[in-house]
Description:
By secondary structure, this protein is α+β, with helices and mostly antiparallel strands.
Amino acid sequence: MHFEFCILNCFDGIILGLYYYPSGTELAEEFGGGWRYALMPKKNSDELFHFQENQIQPLSPQELFSQIRAEINFYQQQIAIRQQQLLAITGGSTYG
């Protein structure tokens, strides 16, 4: 499962991980204390960005529902395409 987000400038992406830098630690002194998020701008991106908690804004429940519904529809279409391809390859017969 992945979580969607919108950085304050509305750069969309996916949260891959979270880190907590406790105050008084070397990491907190270098990068700032608190929660930090590892984010990927797109599903198939090889880029990874890190942001502090106050730099991101989660999607609203309605936006999240809409994105989940769109993803479900996409995969249902992919399943239908693969089923048609399978029927074409097997000549309509099923081996199962």
